[in-house]
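Example 3.2
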Amino acid sequence: MTLSVIVVNWRSKEYLRNCLLSIKLTAAEVPLQVIVVDGASFDGCGEMLAVEFPEVLFIQSLENIGFGRCNNLGFERATSEAVLFLNPDTEVKPSCFQTMLAELEAHPTAGILCPRILNPDGSLQVSCVRALPTPLNRALDSTFCRRLFPNSRLWGVGAALGATRPIEVDAVSGAFMLMRSAVFREVGGFTREYFMYGEDMDLCAKVRSAARAIVFVPNASIIHFGGISSSQQESEFPTENMRVGWNLYMYRHHGFGMALWYRLLQLISALVRMGLLVPGCLFGSRSGREEARRSFSKWGCVLEWASTQLFSVPTTSFQETASKI
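Structure, written as C-alpha cells:
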C-alpha cells in the first residue's frame, strides 16, 4: 500500500527537520510521498527542504488558513492509497509505518488508525486516545481528576493503557492519523470552519458517523514533543482557542443546547478553579505563587470567554482565531 504523509508546519522548522529525518531512517522501503504545507509562517522551512529533502513536495500557503485547511491543501496533491496526517513535532520509531500500514490493510472497515504516542521520556501520552468531547468531560478535565480516575470513560484512554493488540476507541490524537485516502474523501476531509483545535475530534466524529472504526495500534509508536505551534503564541491563545474549537464541535455535532451547556460548564469550572487557586496566589513559595497566578490568569481568560460567548451561536472558529495571529 502506498502512503502520502502530510505535515503542516508553522514555525517548527527544526522539529520538521528531525521528523523528516526519522521518516527517512525508518521507512526507506515504504512507497512514500511526503508533502509539507507551511501555513504562512515563512520560517525558512522551504529553503531547508530544498537543500536537505529535495524529494519532499513543498506547498507554501500565503495565508495562515489553519491546521485543517492546510491538511486539506496538502491532500489535494496526495497520490497514494493511504494518507497520514502527521505533526512536525514528532519522531517516528522503527517499523512504525510498516506496522501501521499492515494494520490498515488488515482492517478494511477502519476509518482512522493511531499508534502509541509517547512523551519524550518514553511514557504514554494519555491524549493519544480520547473520548469524544462532551460538556462534562471538557469541564472536569484536569491533572487531578485524571490521576484520581485514570480509567474513567470521561477521558477514553483507559483501554489503551494496558492494550497489547489493536483495539477500537472513541477518538485519537491529531498528531498521527492514518486513513485510506478514499475514506478521507468520503467524509469530506477536515471541516473548514475550524482554525486549530477541535478539527481532529470533528474528523473522528465524522468517520464514526460513516460507520468506520477508530483503531489504536499499541505495537507501533512515535514520540510527540507536543504543543510547538501553540507555544509560539501568547499564553491566552491556546487557552481560548481550545474553547472556541470545542464550542464549535458541540454546536456542529449536538446543536445549540449542548453548546450552551458547554459554555455554562466552562464558566462554572473557571469560577471554581479560580476560587481554589486564591490561597496559592497569596501564600507559599515564590515559585508556587507565580505558578498559581499563571493558572489563575488562564482560568480568568476562560471565564471572560465563556461569559461573553454564553448565548452566542458558534458558526466558525476560523475568523475569530485567525484575527489574533
